[in-house]
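Supplementary notes for students who missed Thursday's class. We covered one full example, reproduced here. Read the sequence, then the structure, then the short commentary at the end.
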Amino acid sequence: MTQKGLVTATHGRHAVVESQDGLRRLCHFRGKKNEVVVGDHVLWSTSEDAGIIEQVQKRTNLFYRSDELRTKSFAANIDQIVVLVASDPDFSEEQIVRALISANSQNIPAFVALNKSDLHVPFERAKEKLKHYPAMGYDVLPLTLTRDSAVNPEFTDRLKNKISFIMGPSGAGKSTLINRLVPNAQALTGEISKALQSGKHTTTATTLYWTDSQRTSALIDSPGFQEFGLNHIEPSQLADLMPDLKEYNTGCKFYNCTHLHEPGCVVRAQVESGLISTSRYKIYGQLFNQLSTSRY
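Structure (token representation):
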């Protein structure tokens, strides 16, 4: 007899599935293919030593990255993506752009959380770097994540009743954030590591943590922000997935304008006028060329 469950962690050919009573169990996949990711709603059955995942139910979305060699799926059925960066050390805007493009391709809402707002000079510099994002629909929320400070209420309100995927580079404060909002996170991570037999490789496992006892709000933590491939995106799709470029890309002289060198390009005109940031346009050009090259 099968029952419903939620995948809360994966590693190799194993997954931790949470049943409707809140208990988490180690499960295996039936057959050779491993197509299960954290956030999946599954039907599973019991066996002698562990559960067996029989079926993955239909997803609302799937967040993933891809390069020339492979595709890495992070999570499914998520409500929003939180890109966490810090004012110090300096962050890569290209990484943010890549993550937001991938989120947009799956119609997943996203916003940026800017940590270390207590460092006045670096924070103001970082805010300036991100000044164009709110106009594109990406809020930039300030955070100060220390052991003693309270997490910004505006930020925590954005997490309520949502499954949020948290991503960010090393040093951004992701671990601090999760430990603040999920007091038992370290213990839970240890239990999951033991169940998955992943040992020191716990950081390679994507994990879902509930932030409330009612299990209505959750954070999904995953590594892999340093390299975020977009090979699943066609070069011709890029402008439509960048809101600032999309606003103008239908007014060009040529219907198939790449916005790189063609005459009569409205996008380039907006870059020159300052309505599109030069840094984002430069990243667009780099991504367009990379994706075009990788297909040949």
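Commentary. The chain has a mean pLDDT of 89. The domain at 3-56 is CATH 2.40.50.140 (OB fold (Dihydrolipoamide Acetyltransferase, E2P)). If anything here is unclear, bring it to office hours.
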